[in-house]
Specification:
four-stranded antiparallel β-sheet; Immunoglobulin-like; 20% helix; five-stranded mixed β-sheet; 311 residues
Length: 311
């Protein structure tokens, strides 16, 4: 019940501006978006978007057509965008900007979805994350993996500070996690930061280092996590500043679940980040990374986390 109330409260306080994106909620719900239209130049009448049938369409009605695209139009799994030589459409995707039409490829065929989400869950997630999705552009923060050759720093950076949503230093993580993601507030100039996950005996389970990022990923191997273990996640820079988190390993089914059934771990993690308890944030950030590579909303939520944006 607390989860339902928290989610309803969050949805109520979000002011959803009237926009093309809002109108797209029914035909292209938030969690199915793979691209959005960043701009249209030239003759917009020469653009044509063919919508794929909704996952709930069991009548085999086939593709439904939609007219010319405009800025902020959403493109979902299975959709097909066709643009003539008289126009150029710039798309925002998880792989950066993509140009369609003009002298570029005349067709953008969105990939097919790997799972389906109920209509109730669609509107639920759309309410939680509508404001994030309205922000233009993707901010990418480098992820440290392994160890890098870092240059000596000439300036001392700002203090090493946790993200606002990561102020709870005792966290619960599921025993099924495949990686841990450590993050802190981005600051300038860049700094060398090393992250170490230590077991209950102080042994290093995983380590990584970054020179200019604000988060890093620590891959886990089968058998690294044991129920009821309390692990230590150490985040330390080369100026002696340090952040520590205690991670309690729990059965995955003990973590909170949303009131609306969701078919994948990254969607459940998205709900926990917006409406779940603060001691499940490290687990949620890690599970969010399991989203399909084309899932634009998952990328935007991650970017909002790295940038310490509010949602």
């Amino acid at each position: 019940m607390r989860g339902v109330l928290a989610a309803n409260l969050l949805a109520a306080v979000l002011i959803l501006p009237l926009s093309r994106a809002a109108a797209d909620d029914e035909t292209c719900p938030t969690e199915r978006v793979v691209a959005t239209v960043d701009s249209v130049t030239g003759d917009a009448a020469k653009t044509h978007l063919k919508r794929a049938p909704a996952p709930s369409d069991t009548k085999g009605a086939g593709e439904s057509s939609e007219g010319p695209v405009t800025r902020d139009t959403r493109i979902c799994y299975g959709d097909r965008l066709e643009v003539g030589p008289e126009a150029v459409v710039t798309l925002e995707t998880t792989k950066g900007k993509r140009h369609i039409g003009g002298s570029y490829d005349p067709v953008f065929q969105a990939p097919e979805a790997s799972d389906a989400v109920s209509p109730g869950a669609q509107s639920y997630l759309g309410s939680l994350y509508h404001n994030i999705f309205k922000k233009s552009g993707l901010t990418v923060y480098a992820t440290g993996r392994g160890f890098e050759q870092c240059r000596p720093q000439e300036e001392e950076p700002l203090p090493l500070v946790p993200l606002d949503r990561m102020s709870e230093t005792r966290q619960r993580i599921g025993a099924d996690l495949r990686e841990i993601v450590a993050a802190w507030k981005p600051s300038a100039p860049p700094r060398t930061v090393r992250t170490t996950l230590r077991g209950r005996n102080g042994n290093a389970i995983a380590e990584a280092e970054t020179c200019d990022g604000a988060h890093m990923t620590l891959p886990l191997r089968p058998g690294d996590l044991h129920l009821n273990d309390v692990l230590t996640l150490e985040i330390a820079d080369n100026h002696g500043q340090r952040l520590n988190y205690n991670l309690v390993v729990v059965p995955p089914n003990e973590l909170p679940n949303p009131p609306a059934a969701l078919p994948s771990q990254w969607l459940i993690a998205a709900w926990r980040l917006a409406a779940g308890p603060p001691d499940t944030r490290i687990d949620s950030i890690a599970r969010l990374q399991s989203a399909p590579p084309d899932a634009l909303v998952a990328r935007k939520i991650s970017d909002a986390v790295w940038g310490d944006s509010k949602f």
